[in-house]
Write a structure and sequence with these properties.
The complex is a heterodimer. Chain A is of the alpha+beta class. Chain A is built from 14 helices and 19 strands. The C terminus of chain A is likely disordered. Chain B is 34% helix and 23% strand. In chain B, a hairpin with an 8-residue loop joins strand 1 and strand 2. The chains are: A alpha+beta, B alpha+beta.
């Protein structure tokens, strides 16, 4: 039962077999055995995903990689680390810290989620506004393909051997194989950090403050927004951070850098912009303890929302930043129409929304309402020029939305690429690309193994 | 009917330009759909097609039945300063794009080698980043999505117009640096920055070893330059090597870094360049890489930079080199031959350092290939991707070499 779900309560599948290899060699041996038997398999990290991406259907083997958890090397001078896929994100951060370095991508689940899972999902996090998402931090990968062969893609210096296969692999949700050894870029720890909490009487004014900061040419390390429903959920929980309950929205803004003078000066500019944009108050964390408390409220917001009802659907979509106020109002309208509680906590600086719907999944009527409301929210985001996922992935949860943003030809192209890496489609089958919606690309690989010889006219 | 007659019937006379010097018909489709129509026909007819932009970077000399130039795809459908995004067609010149962005207060944080009018599509498809890579990352970090046409005329979209996007596989990164082997990029969605409110350049001349140390000191001091570039004397047109530091961003950030620069370099030894001098310096550096016949880049870890520069000096000579040591990126330009380049690539492969051939006359790039030295398991994947996106082999691109 432990492996029947991930972090999303709306999907549940019980795998036939769960295998937990204890070493790279064991993993390779298992995958080669499965290749010989023609058995599909699903790689899985800590199971904190939010798209049903690491669930195994009947007939598939679930390969849990959490025992491959060694940090193989931290290279301070070249600012990189080499890790196994089961290393927990926060543990890598802690290991890099004595060298004055950090692993910047920080998903909210970083205390549990693994680097291998982060690679599969191209995970983000609050501080990705300044530092970039997982794809910006992966230098090289050793990849175990479905047929049991290995490929070394990327290089420690970041230049690729040929096309950027690392960029193609990251975010492929396990469909292209398993990253067995991961070389990540580390960045210097900031020497100065200022954390601000601004509260607003309207979501729209909070959204406008976000635009004002970005337009000023300042790139905060993080720029997060929470609405009143989320604020109250946090304040009612053990993660209470002192957010004002009567605020329509709060912005958590962090400015960091290597130069204290610059950080102080930019913070002053940001405070001024927040006030001019209508912030009722702007509070600056006076100590590291206060900063941690403010962040704990944000990072544990999903957990706090668990108090609102039995189940929680954490949605994920991205819109152009300027569309945030309008889309937030549309989401509120949808929630009202369906009689649902929707709480928003999200990466405002990126336009990456997380509308969270609280409900009881045992109530079939309510469950249908949640599905319908989720679909409408996705459609509203697409209509605003956005997309259906910014960091949680497609998995099985968002398969149905893929044809809303990609035409049949583009979906067919993705499917064809998948078949280059995994001709028999045995790795994590049924995820990411809705095959029924693809235009056929069979002629692209006319009866040949995709892993054959280069074409004679290739050069 | 000749190929030219068929293409004229297909796309109209307006799409036919003066042929290139090797008499290969040069076709300039006026829309992404026209590109798809042309490549679909080429696939069916068995024509070989070479891809060109403005013709200022890669030599237009690959053996082909026709040349497809993107130069009429020069529109900018959208600039959204409030979202810091833009959408531009692949044939737009960077100089025109920069100007239009600047007029709206926006900025694209790339400074690729080549002439100012080099096309956006050329820069993206070759992933040729310049010194700003140090502060703002490689070309792929500035892309939100692309639309491309495959070798058999299929139009494919990847990514989108928003800051974060994990919907589907990332085919944008396959196209960035694919050299056109996986299709012709027709439309690019870009991530922008606000126009830096402060932008200053400082230079320091000296021995290469000394400047390398200064560069390390700057990085260690916590400064955040937009560019930190080590330039050979010939390329910089100076007596000695030059370490150029560009600070660009908010006035507060730049002022703080300026104050730190003097301390990091042992007391104000850097000379500031006036705005027009700085512009000329960076422009000269970029243009220098399109003058000599061969240009390539290598990427090693930062601590290997000195060793790699020595290797280049030993094997090819170090006349025209620009290096971003902290980013591990080195670009060389000059004249060399197939044997020397292949030997260098082999040596570098032994050091886990890829060499990407950016431009060279066809006889050399056809033999050596843009890529060539793959690690374990990579060659079959690249070949499979080529077959997927160009099943008939219509696109003439020297990926691996002969």
């Amino acid at each position: 039962m432990t492996y029947a779900m991930d972090g999303l309560p709306t999907h549940r599948r019980v795998p036939d077999i769960v295998v937990l290899p204890g070493s790279r060699e064991e993993l390779i041996a298992v995958v080669r055995l499965l290749a010989a038997l023609g058995v599909p398999f699903v790689p899985r990290g800590a199971g904190t995903g939010l798209s049903g991406g690491a669930l195994a259907d009947e007939g598939s083997v679930l390969l849990v990689l959490t025992r491959l958890n060694r940090i193989l090397r931290i290279d301070r001078d070249n600012r990189l680390a080499v890790v196994e896929p089961g290393v927990v994100n926060a543990k890598l951060g802690a290991a890099a810290r004595p060298a004055g370095l950090q692993y910047a991508p920080d998903p909210s689940s970083q205390s549990a989620c693994t680097i291998g899972g982060n690679v599969a999902e191209n995970a983000g996090g609050p501080h990705c506004l300044k530092y970039g998402v997982t794809a910006n931090h992966i230098l090289a990968l050793e990849v175990l393909l479905a047929d049991g062969s290995l490929a070394e893609i990327g290089s420690p210096g970041g230049e690729s051997w040929g096309p950027d296969l690392v960029g193609v692999f990251v975010g492929s949700e396990g469909n292209f194989g398993i990253a067995t050894r991961i070389t990540v870029r580390l960045t210097p720890l900031p020497r100065a950090v200022r954390t601000l909490l601004a509260d607003f009487t309207g979501l729209r004014t909070a959204g406008e403050a976000v635009s004002a900061i970005i337009a000023a040419g300042i790139v905060p390390a993080a720029l997060e927004m929470m609405d009143q429903s989320c604020i109250c959920a946090v304040e009612d929980s053990v993660y209470a951070a002192g957010y004002p309950r009567d605020a329509a929205a709060v912005l958590l803004v962090e400015i960091d850098g290597r130069n204290t003078d610059a950080v102080v000066a930019e913070t002053e500019v940001v405070v001024d912009l927040l006030r001019k944009s209508g912030a009722r108050s702007v509070r600056s964390a006076a100590s590291e303890a206060e900063r941690e408390r403010l962040w704990q409220g944000r990072k544990k917001a999903f957990g706090a929302m668990g108090r609102l009802s039995r189940d929680l659907v954490v949605q994920d979509a991205v819109v152009p930043r300027s569309a945030l106020p309008q889309v937030l109002e549309t989401i509120a309208t949808i929630a009202e129409r369906y009689g649902l509680v929707v709480s928003n906590v999200f990466h405002a600086g990126d336009g990456n929304l997380h509308p969270n719907i609280s409900f009881d999944a045992t109530d079939p009527v309510l469950k249908k309402k949640v599905e319908a409301a989720s679909a409408e929210i996705m459609q509203a985001c697409i209509a605003a020029g956005g997309t259906i996922t910014g960091e949680h992935g497609v998995g099985i949860d968002k398969l149905r939305y893929m044809p809303l943003i990609f035409d049949a030809e583009s979906l067919g192209a993705m499917h064809a690429v998948r078949k280059v890496f995994d001709p028999d489609e045995r790795v994590n089958p049924g995820k990411v690309v809705p095959v029924h919606a693809c235009r056929e690309w069979a002629s692209a690989n006319p009866g040949a193994s995709p892993r054959g010889q280069p074409m004679a006219r290739a050069s | 009917m000749t190929i030219l007659e068929k293409v004229t019937a297909l796309l109209g006379e307006g799409a036919v330009l003066e042929p290139s010097t090797d008499r290969v018909p040069r076709i300039a489709p006026g829309s992404p759909d026209a590109v798809a129509l042309l490549l679909g026909t080429a696939h069916q007819e068995g024509w070989r097609v070479r891809i060109e932009g403005a013709g200022t970077w890669l030599q237009s000399d690959a053996p082909a039945d026709l040349a497809l130039t993107t130069r009429r795809l020069d529109r900018i459908p959208a600039i959204e300063p409030s979202d810091l995004t833009a959408t531009a067609e692949a044939g737009i010149g960077l100089d025109q794009l920069r100007q239009q962005l600047a007029d709206r207060g926006a900025w694209l944080g790339i400074d690729p080698p080549g002439l100012a009018g080099r096309t956006l599509g050329s820069v993206v498809s070759t992933a040729t980043a310049g010194p700003l890579r140090h502060g703002f990352g490689p070309i792929k970090d500035h892309l939100l999505g692309v639309t491309f046409v495959t070798g058999d005329g299929r139009m494919v979209q990847s990514g989108g117009r928003v800051m974060k996007n994990v919907a589907g596989y990332d085919l944008t990164r396959l196209q960035a640096g694919g050299f056109g082997a996986f299709g012709v990029i027709v439309l690019v969605h870009l991530r922008l920055r606000t126009l830096p409110r402060a932008d200053v350049t400082y230079v320091l001349e000296g021995a290469r070893e000394d400047l390398t140390q200064v560069g390390e000191d700057i990085a260690g001091a916590g400064l955040t330059p937009a560019a930190l570039e080590l330039v050979s004397p010939a390329l910089a047109r100076r007596e000695r090597w030059v370490l150029a530091v560009r600070l660009a961003g908010s006035p507060a950030l730049v002022a703080a870094d300026e104050a730190g620069l003097g301390a990091a370099s042992g007391g104000g030894r850097f000379s500031p360049l006036r705005a027009e001098e700085a512009h000329a310096f960076w422009m000269r550096l970029a243009e220098g890489f399109s003058v000599r016949p061969v240009t390539f880049r290598i990427g090693g870890v930062p601590t290997a930079s000195d060793e790699l520069l020595d290797l280049l000096q030993h094997q090819l000579g170090d006349e025209w080199i620009s290096a971003s040591p902290a980013a591990g990126a080195i670009r060389w330009t000059g004249d060399t031959n197939i044997d020397r380049l292949q030997r260098l690539r082999r040596t570098l492969a032994g050091l886990e350092v890829p060499l990407t051939l950016e431009r060279a006359p066809w006889p050399l790039r056809g033999a050596v290939g843009h890529f060539g030295a793959y690690r374990e398991g990579v060659g079959p994947l690249v070949a499979g991707l080529r077959r997927t996106f160009d099943p008939g082999g219509a696109l003439v691109v020297a990926t691996e070499g002969s």
